[in-house]
């Protein structure tokens, strides 16, 4: 008898393009049929057929403390009892903005939106208005949501589907997005030299999650900031993934580098739809109604979303030890899988920082998108399917980061490592 997931997917494909509401969920690049999830708690996802999986996707990042954490659940229940959308200011919006400003030093003012995509779109509009320049520079394989300007050499689901330039993005939009090679300052310098007065901003994931996990080489981000200063361009950190995941002040908290603007999402919504962009007050004051740059949202600052986000940020403040604990788990997993690769003589390369992690099926150190693309995606598919079989739910693509949560304990890490050994052996058959 077929599974309920398979039958739901068949029905979904009749009424939803590709059967899913976000492409990478469809399992296209790993094969098989997607699971429909019924519920999630702590370290586990449960599908509609009743099977449980250790959750290493964490809703693509938000679930730092695991699924349905009681503090967040209670905050949302409490908010729900008071109504769930006002279209007028509410006190939680002030509280969450104050919290973000206090936690991320480069952010003096912040605007809430409903997704990471909205945040990045608004941030580049603002950068263009502030600098009175049109072009932006992004890095190949970085994903900044599905705004037209960013679907140029983009990572994540776009990389998985092999359609980096989406039809529907106009040639005139694409010409204002220049792309550099991640971890290669000279490629960025060349673009600046060729367009010295045209670049409004450089936007990047300071640690990249969307070509699989890729970590900046020493001096790379500092070099970008220096070039931005030299040419009068803004530096935008897209910390939708890394914000509050790598530290309580994001990637920037691990360094002394303060960007002009930062985009946030995922964790700041605690699992509800929220994004945000913020930065220097002088720049942010150009946003309407304080200034002329238009940006708005019917549901922006939604009371349920802000209550979930605020509960999440409070949890982080109350548990600063969470990052060390997550890093230890990340390291244990990375070391365990590296050892398995070497014992089984499999070409593989593991990148890990804190609770972000990717196993690439390649014999190359992965430092940029071209390196990532040398991975054997068919092997990843075999590995993914066997991990699922063994009760471990990974992001269904080679070009994504796994997200560890504080709900994982040593027994879970053991389970993941045992499953990984079996899955790696499968790739040899
Ligand atoms: N920026 C980064 C770095 C992301 O990882 C994502 C989503 O994965 C986005 C922006 C877009 O966020 P959203 O999916 O909430 O629109």
TrEMBL record:
Its EC number is 5.4.3.8. It is found in: Cytoplasm. It comes from the Bacteria. GO terms for biological process: protoporphyrinogen IX biosynthetic process. It is an enzyme of class 5 (isomerase). The modification N6-(pyridoxal phosphate)lysine is found at residue 266. GO terms for cellular component: cytoplasm. It catalyses: (S)-4-amino-5-oxopentanoate = 5-aminolevulinate. Its main location: cytoplasm. Homodimer. Belongs to the class-III pyridoxal-phosphate-dependent aminotransferase family. HemL subfamily. This is Glutamate-1-semialdehyde 2,1-aminomutase.
């Amino acid at each position: 008898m077929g599974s309920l997931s398979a039958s739901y997917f068949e029905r979904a494909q009749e009424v939803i393009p590709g059967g899913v509401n976000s492409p990478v969920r469809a399992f296209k690049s790993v094969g098989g049929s997607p699971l429909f999830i019924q519920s999630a708690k702590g370290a586990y996802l449960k599908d509609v057929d009743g099977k449980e999986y250790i959750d290493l996707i964490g809703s693509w990042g938000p679930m730092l403390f695991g699924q349905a954490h009681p503090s967040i659940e209670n905050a949302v229940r409490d908010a729900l009892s008071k109504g769930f959308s006002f279209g007028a200011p509410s006190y939680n919006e002030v509280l969450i903005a104050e919290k973000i400003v206090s936690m991320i030093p480069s952010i003096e003012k912040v605007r809430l939106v409903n997704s990471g995509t909205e945040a990045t779109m608004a941030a580049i509009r603002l950068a263009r208005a502030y600098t009175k320049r049109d072009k932006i520079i992004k890095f190949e394989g970085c994903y900044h949501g599905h705004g037209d300007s960013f679907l140029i050499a983009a990572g994540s689901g776009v990389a998985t589907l092999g359609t980096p330039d989406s039809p529907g993005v106009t040639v005139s939009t694409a010409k204002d997005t220049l792309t550099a090679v991640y971890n290669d300052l000279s490629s960025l310098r060349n673009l600046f030299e060729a367009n010295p007065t045209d670049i409004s901003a450089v936007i990047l994931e300071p640690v990249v999650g969307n070509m699989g996990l890729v970590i900046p080489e020493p001096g790379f981000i500092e070099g970008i900031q220096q070039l931005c200063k030299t040419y009068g361009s803004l530096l935008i950190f897209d910390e939708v993934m890394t914000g509050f995941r790598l530290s309580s002040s994001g990637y920037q908290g691990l360094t002394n580098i303060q960007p002009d603007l930062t985009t946030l999402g995922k964790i700041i919504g605690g699992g509800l739809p929220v994004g945000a962009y913020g930065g220097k007050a002088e720049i942010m004051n150009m946003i309407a109604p304080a200034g002329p740059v238009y940006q708005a949202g019917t549901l922006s600052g939604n009371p349920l979303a802000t209550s979930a986000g605020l509960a999440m940020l409070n949890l982080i403040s109350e548990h600063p030890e969470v990052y060390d604990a997550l890093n230890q788990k990340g390291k244990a997993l990375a070391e365990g899988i590296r050892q398995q690769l070497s014992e089984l003589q499999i070409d593989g390369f593991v990148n890990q920082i804190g609770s972000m992690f990717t196993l690439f099926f390649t014999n190359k150190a992965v430092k940029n998108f071209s390196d990532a693309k040398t991975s054997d995606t068919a092997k990843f598919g075999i590995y993914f399917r066997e991990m699922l079989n063994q009760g471990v739910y990974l992001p269904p693509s080679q070009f994504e980061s796994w997200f560890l949560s504080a709900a994982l304990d040593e027994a879970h890490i053991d389970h993941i490592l045992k499953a990984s050994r079996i899955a790696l052996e499968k790739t040899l058959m």
